[in-house]
Amino acid sequence: MKDSNIANGQVLLLFKALPFWTIPVVTGVVMFMFCYLTGAFAPPNGEASLRIFNGALAMPIFVVYVWIAVLVMKRRAIACLNQFTQNSVHDLTYVNFEQDIESRLKKNIIWSVALGILFTCTYLYHEDLIATDLSPALFLLNIYTLLFWFFNSLVLLQLFFITQYVIKHFLDNEKIDLFGIQKLLPISDLVITNTIISTFGLALIPLFWIGRTVPTIDKIIVTAVFILMSGYLFWPVLKVQKIISRKKRLAIMRINTQFQTLFESKLGVSRRLTDDAQRLRKLSSLISAKQEISVASEWPIDLPQSIKGVLISMSIPLSWVAGSFVESFISKFF
């Protein structure tokens, strides 16, 4: 019995030592294997067989990618928030973000199961795929559809939760300092990570379109959805910019008021400002403070990081639209 416990402990340690992406990748390989065994990868000879082929190719890739994405998002969120709390001058020890993220992930898994079943049933009913005489390949893809919608629901719920959590607990007016913008870079890093995850997820959608004529409007709709999602994910950055901008404006207004008070005050009946060393020092101090506040950055994101995030985020969906127009142009004139 003792030897059995030791062996089980060694297996558990070995399991924990594996890279976090091992189980998703192995699952994807198994999914591909079943697709092959059921004939889903047979050369397509029509629209129906082409849809089966595309689904067998795309769904395992989607499941693996989104599963890994959920794990990466969790790790990045904990790492970035931990770095932010260490950099912050405010006491944030009361925010147990690691426990909150773990707890919310478990709840989102339950919600994702329910949403996955709902979306799968709706899709199968709409596509008239609920039947008892389905081919093995089509039956298998119906099961994969449940995994597909489960993981997509989970990643969306996690994206929305992490964004709202950061805004609620870390980005209120009192915790953001006018000259502490560099300390907010971990938040920006988290935002860009989540945006890139969304980008590459949408980049996999054309796998369902291989060999099929996809209307331009479909690609435009997907691109519009991505832009809206990116805007939501960048909400923390936009909120920081708004708070910093407001604090800069109020600080400059206070300095301007002190300027006015300084010029209106007199120590003597006809004493000029240039004859008063104390007021000159005060004036110099106010000018320096105003210049320092005016040049303070409002954006909690460095330029190389922002350019990288924007280019990666926008290049893929825009390439769909551009490619669709080029394809339409060629088919029209040639």
Plain-language structure description:
Keywords: Membrane, Transmembrane, Transmembrane helix. The chain crosses the membrane at residues 12-40, 52-73, 109-126, 146-167, 187-208, 220-238. It is a single chain. By secondary structure, the protein is mostly helical. It has one domain. It has helices at residues 2-17, 22-37, 47-87, 97-126, 136-170, 185-203, 216-233, 235-264, 277-294, 303-333.
List the helices and strands and how they pair.
Layout: H1 2-17, H2 22-37, H3 47-87, H4 97-126, H5 136-170, H6 185-203, H7 216-233, H8 235-264, H9 277-294, H10 303-333
Helix pairs in contact: 2-3, 3-4, 3-5, 3-6, 4-5, 6-7, 6-10, 7-10, 8-9
Quick tags:
mainly alpha; transmembrane; transmembrane helix; single chain; membrane
